[in-house]
Design goal:
Radius of gyration: 36 Å
Number of strands: 0
Shape: elongated
Mean pLDDT: 91
CATH superfamily of one domain: Tetratricopeptide repeat domain
Order of helices and strands: HHHHHHHHHHHHHHHHHHHHHHHHHHH
CATH topology of one domain: Serine Threonine Protein Phosphatase 5, Tetratricopeptide repeat
Oligomer: single chain
Strand content: under 5%
Length: 466
């Protein structure tokens, strides 16, 4: 991030000599007279060895005799930043700019520090000043882009990064940030292209391979996404997120056994979490391996008791295996956690119906259609349950709601005819059956079972073509 900025001195190539200078300086406890060049050499030695406090003491000594050295003030700022003393660093950069107000590098360092101190507006203004002085300064353009990106000004960040790669076509960080910005902007094709350019320069960038995989998976290119995750994993086999998202891509491809293997690798690396256990359970459920699915849904809710989807998945598997009472308890738990999900109510209603709890089922179907009044299948089930409960008027209203959604639903006309007949409205029932046959002539075959009382009349049978 920060460049200490000392010019190379010939003496620095002589490691033995610089070590002697450092040893002499330390033996004298910093009291020996040393000229500015030697002090610079010693400070650089300390900086390169990560001894920032020692380097700062040397720079302060240099400034005591050369207080108008803008370079020394800049270097003091760099050291203070490395010591996380950012406010003091800003003061040092300010002193340097008083002495040399047109130094772009100092402005860049000042802007980076302002961004670190969460003063992005001031950072942006400072980058703009640096770019007015040096419009093709790629360091200024790159860090300006990073600040804009953090402020969610992605379009402006893209402009800065694009200018950066125009200057240096092999600037790996700029290509990486461009890939990320285009990803956030929904320009997936460009995002992949930018990650590819980054990878051309830095083929061992595990994060670039990983992010590339995320974009490819999102656009449905699951095979290439898996290959991207494979590269990230080849670079770092402990990259748990890459294993996890590789599992997602494989699941999207329908390769569920291998997806489970990827998720299980996440469990090996991190010990597993609710989301990973949930995905493993879903894969087992789709493979009809219900006992294994139940095991992992239980592990998901053990890890996160508030995971409504996992309670719902557990209920679905238990209902499939005939454990209706347990399933109902788990559907109820899911609804308690999130009562706004129609699927939860649908599953609960069906389960109650299967248990013969007709009134409970009706209440759940009612809640379902209140949430999702455009769900034709839900309305049909609700209407049929109302019919079986003898609530014919309400059933008729529900069938009419179905036909309002789908006027060509022949089956709904047949069911409506049954309801009308139960209400004693024979003529209307006959008209409803005629409409059903008009829409789907194959429905004639269902009529004897659907309306046996009506079809005892030979005249009606003739009207219906029976």
């Amino acid at each position: 991030m920060f460049d200490f900025g000392f010019d190379d001195h010939e003496d620095l190539t002589d490691s033995g000599r610089i070590q002697e200078l450092v040893d002499s300086y330390e033996r004298s406890a910093g009291e020996a007279y040393l000229d500015s060049d030697v002090l610079e050499d010693i400070a650089t030695f300390y900086f390169e060895n990560g001894r920032f406090d020692s380097a700062l003491a040397v720079i302060d000594r240099l400034l005591a005799t050369h207080p108008f050295s803008s370079d020394a003030w800049v270097r003091r700022g760099v050291l203070l930043n490395n010591l996380a003393r950012h406010e003091e660093a800003l003061h040092a950069y300010g002193r340097a700019l008083e002495l040399n107000p047109t130094d772009a590098e100092t402005l860049i360092n000042q802007a980076i520090t302002l961004d670190t101190l969460d003063q992005p507006d001031e950072a942006v203004e400072t980058y703009q000043r640096a770019l007015e002085i040096d419009p093709r300064n790629e360091e200024a353009l790159f860090n300006f882009g990073v600040t804009l990106e953090r402020r969610q000004k992605l379009d402006e960040a893209v402009v800065a990064f694009e200018q950066c790669v125009e200057i240096d076509a092999e600037h790996p960080e700029a290509w990486y940030e461009l890939g990320f910005c285009y990803d956030r902007l929904g320009e997936d094709g460009r995002s992949v292209e930018c990650y590819d350019r980054h990878i051309d320069v830095d083929p061992y960038s595990q994060d670039a391979w990983y992010n590339r995989g995320i974009v490819l998976n999102r656009i449905g290119d699951h095979k290439r996404a898996v290959s991207s995750y494979d590269m990230a994993i080849a670079i770092n086999d402990e990259f748990a997120s890459a294993h996890y998202n590789r599992g997602n891509a494989l699941a999207n491809m329908g390769n569920l056994p291998e997806a489970v293997d990827s998720y299980m690798r996440v469990v090996e690396i991190e010990g597993g979490d609710a989301a990973t256990f949930y995905n493993i359970a879903l894969a087992h459920e789709e493979l009809n391996q219900y006992d294994s699915a139940i095991t992992f849904f239980r592990r998901a809710v053990d890890a996160d008791d508030s995971y409504a989807e996992a309670w719902y998945g557990l209920g679905c598997c238990e209902e499939t295996t005939g454990k209706h009472v347990d399933a109902l308890a788990h559907f109820t738990r899911a609804i308690t956690l999130n009562p706004r999900v129609p699927d939860f109510w649908y599953a609960k209603a069906d389960c109650e119906y299967n248990l013969g709890r007709m009134q409970d089922a009706l209440a759940s179907y009612q809640a379902l259609v209140n949430l999702d009044g455009n769900n034709r299948e839900a309305l049909l089930d609700y209407a049929e349950t109302l019919f079986q409960a003898g609530r014919y008027v309400n059933a008729l209203e529900a069938y009419r709601a179905v036909l309002k959604l789908e006027p060509d639903c022949a089956g709904a006309y047949v069911q409506q005819a049954k309801t009308l007949l139960a209400l004693g409205r024979t003529d209307e029932s006959l008209r409803s059956l005629k409409l059903a046959i008009l829409i789907d002539p194959a429905k004639r075959a269902e009529l004897p079972a659907a309306c046996p009382d009506l079809l005892r009349d030979n005249g009606i049978r003739r009207q219906l073509g029976l």
